Amino acid sequence: MDWAGTSVDYGCMAPVAAFVESFKNIGLEVTPEETRAFMGLTKIEEIRALFAIERVAEDFRLKFGRDYDDSDVQGRYNDFQRVLFATLEDYSEPIPNFSFMEEELTARADEFEKTVVSMHAHPFADVFNDNVAKPFQYYVTQYPGLQFCTAAHNHGFDDRVLFDDDVHYIVSDCMKSRSYLVFTITPEKYEYELVEY
To answer: What angle do CA 187, 191, 192 make, to 5 degrees?
Structure first.
């Protein structure tokens, strides 16, 4: 399950709106479509990519009489964070109250003996609605043969237990860091290897 955009903030509108607003605050227009084209990058890299759009770079040059630089990128990143966190609650309504998890548990429980839950952001990550972290974890632990959970939002490798239930949240790095995880699941256990290339 992908948490951001699936169980909260359908369509991942919160970051899109924050990118658009942070550029608007200096008189530049970026469209939701332009911001979506760079989803998957870190937020600061996405801002760099938005500045590099020819139309945006030209509008900046006309407005400010110079090319953008790293201080402009950092300024938009700081404003992006301010806007995002000021409005995150507007986008954090659970969708649709975990009924999809209940349906999977009741309708498909006989189909599998082991479960790996995969999501974009894990509980307590910066974009996770911590108000529903415990109910979320309760549902996760109801799946048959839960092995572990995976996430990727942090863009850095991590393996930790977030609750007092020994469920590991294993976070993969981004491809930019030139690494990936290989999981092996056997009847007795699971293992993983961090592969760097």
So the answer is: 145
SS3 19: helix
What angle separates helix 54-64 from helix 43-52, to the nearest 10 degrees? Answer: 80
Mean pLDDT, rounded, for 21-27: 95
Residues assigned a catalytic role: 2, 43
Higher pLDDT, 78 or 2: 78
Q: What is the pLDDT of residues 56-85, one digit of tens each?
A: 999 999 999 999 999 999 999 999 988 887
> What pLDDT score was predicted for residue 10?
47
Q: Mark residue 37 as left, alpha or beta (left: phi above 0; alpha: psi -120 to 50; beta: remaining).
A: alpha
Nearest Cα to 80, choosing from 58, 50, 120? 50
**Which two structure tokens, joined as six digits, stand for 123?**
């509980």
Using a 10 angstrom Cβ sphere, with 0-12 exposed, 13-18 middle and 19 or more buried, the burial of residue 76 is buried
* 3 contacts 128 by C-beta, under 8 angstroms: yes
Nearest to 109 by CA among 131, 142, 139, 68: 142
Tens-digit pLDDT profile for residues 78-124: 999 888 877 766 655 554 357 778 888 888 878 888 999 988 888 88
Per-residue DSSP letter, 94: B
